[in-house]
Prior knowledge:
Strands 5-6-7-8-9-10-11-12 form an eight-stranded parallel β-barrel, surrounded by five helices. It is built from 15 helices and 17 strands. It is α/β, with parallel strands linked by helices. Strand 8, helix 8 and strand 9 form a beta-alpha-beta unit.
Amino acid sequence: MWKAEDSIELYGIEKWGNGYFSVNEKGNVVVLPNKNLYQSVDIMDLIEEIEKSRDLEFPVLLRFPQMLEDRIDEITGAFMGAIEEFNYSGTYQPIFPMKVNQRKEVIEYIIKYGAKHKIGMEVGTKAELLAALSLGLPRYAPLICNGYKDEDYLRLALSIHNLNNIIIVVDLFEEIYDILKYADAMGVVPRVGMRVKLFARGSGRWVESGGESAKFGLSTSEALELMRILEERGLTSSLKMLHFHIGSQITDIRTVKNAMNEAARVYAKARKMADIEYLNVGGGLSVDYNGSNTATPSSANYSLQEYANDIVYTVQKICDDEEVPCPTIVSESGRAIAAYHSMLIFKIIGRKNAKSSPLLPSKRSTSITTRSTTMMLCSIETSFTTPSIWGTSALRRGLRARPYSGWSAKRRHSWPRRQGTSPMSF
C-alpha cells in the first residue's frame, strides 16, 4: 500500500524543500512557511477553494513572504554564528539585489522584516534606484549602485548622497572619471567602491562570469591606478568598499575558499592604503534545487553554515596575518533569500504517453487521479497577509491570490503595475 512516506522518498521533497515543503498524511503537498509542522498549508485545499472562487482562475501565483523573513534570519544567523565562533572583530551586513525579484510587494516585505538586520539593497539601474528610494529604505541601510552608469544614474545617486548610505561601485575603470567629474560639479564627496577581478573562478552554470576575463571588474593594475587617482585628489577616504563576484549558484565550496583567500589578501593590501569599511563577497550562495548535496549545476556540496564559516574564518585569519582591521562582511545572497518563497499553480491540459508512465495511479484510484492531475505545482509568487492565520481555510481567512498572466521580456524588468486585477481577499 502506497504511503505518504513513499511519496516523500520518491520525490525527495525533504532533500530539496529545505524544510518548507512536505507531504501530509493525505498524500498532499504542504507548505510550511516557518518550518513549523503545526503552521502548514495543504496546497490541494487551497486549489479546491480557488476553484470555487468566482474571482480567481488558474494559473495562480502564490507567495509566502514568511519564507523571505525566515531566509533573511537564517543567512544572517549563520554569519553572526560564525562571527561569534571565530571571535571575528567585524560584523555582517546582508544585502538584497533588486534584480533577483523586482516586485513591489517582495521588496517592501524584505525592507520591513529585514530592518532588524539593517538589510540594504543593491541596484543596477536608475529605475531600480528610484524604486528602492520610493519604498522607504532606512537611511542607515547601505544602497549599493552597480551596473552601467550613465550621467542621469550618477547624478541621481550623488544628489541624494547625504540622505542615504549610497556606495557607487566602480565596475569599469573609466567610471571613476565620471563619478569624480559629476561629484565635483555638484560639490559632494562620493562614497565609492571598486569591483576587482579575481583569478579564482566560480563553478556551475555561471563559471564564465568570474575570473580574470570577466566582463566587469578592475584588474590589479587598474585597482592600483584608481587608488592613485583618489590619493592625488585627496579622496582616499572615499573608498569604502572592495567588491568581487565570481558567479551565481556556486556549487563547490572549494571555489568559495579559493576566492576568499585571494579577495581577503587584496582587501588587506588595499586597507593599508585606504580606510575601506566593507568587503563585499557578492552573490553565489547556492540553492540545492535537486537535493543531491553535490557540486552539480543544480545543487551544492556545502551548507549555509559552512559557507559562512569559511568566509568569516578566512577573512579573520588573513587580517590577523596582515595586521589590518577586519571589515564588515557584505553578501548579496538574493537567490538564497527569494528562491523558495513563490509557487506557480496551473492546470494540466493533457498527458503524453500516459499508459507507459510508471508513476500514474491505478484505475482503483480514479478520484485521486482526477484530483491530482487537475493542477500542477511548479516553482514557488500571493501572500499571507496575516502570518498568524493558518489551516486549510487559510485562503478564505487571509490568503491573497492573484491571476498569473505569464512572463514577458517587458514585464520581467518593469516595475509592477498598480492598475488591473487587484489581489482578492476571502
